Amino acid sequence: MTIPDFANYGIDSHWINPEPPRRTLLVVYAHPDDESFGNAGTIIHYTAQGAAVHYACATRGESGTVAPEKMRGYADVGALRTDEMLCAAKALDLTGLHFLGYRDSGMVGTPENDHPDALVQADPDRVAGQVTALIRALQPQVVLTFGPYGGYGHPDHIAMHHAATRAFREAADPTCFPEQLASGLSPWQPSKLYYPTFRTLTLKIGIRLMRLRGMDPSRLGENKDIDLVRAARETTPITTTVNSQEHLAAKERAWACHASQNSARGPFQRLPGVLRSRFFANEHFTRIVPEWHGGPREQDLFTGI
Q: Is 230 helix (H, G, I), strand (E, B) or coil?
């Protein structure tokens, strides 16, 4: 396989397993750990089948909260989380990891939003162009990115939703980013576009319990900027479910790589193995392209390809 060079597009690529692919999945998210805490099971499901899975990671997670003892040996949070991401890339058996070079923006209203290198300050054309270049070079049949609300309203998640959705639609159009064609890339149209989603029942039960305890589920987190009520309302419908029950151990190894961000997983990981297996067996998605018209749920992102 000829390894593309994305340096001209400001992309820092790490090739882990550059074998010639039969099928290719491109995952476009914002931070180190989005891929593992979000869809590790699905990624491992496909890499175990020999598919090439690439992760386009917009930032290095510089705004993440990290316990002081985790910082030993690291100059800053971004360096630590880059190391964790490289660990996860190997655990997931990714073909390639592609950092887009932006800074973690943090949540809405935080000082990190105003940093000149923050993703939310970036030119949307540049971000979409980077994802377009990856699509044209890697030629994935399937692209996976955030839904419109980004799961829980994180501005970086929403920015990558817009960039990747736009790139999916424009990568086949030679009039879009024509300088890429001049540099040797060719138009490419992926066949399918998905957003991750989840069942809302557990979340709705949690919201009700919070209210019974006098908590406001619309104002959670250190800065009261996480709105679980809106997250439940904005969830897109499940059209596709991928079962990765047999890969639970590998999934947990990927989680473990992101040790600095793993505290939220603690209660779930203390569950008995049988319960963990059932709870984390399935990962759910909304098929955006081709448009979903109902019927039995898909069990495979590559169905029809």
A: helix
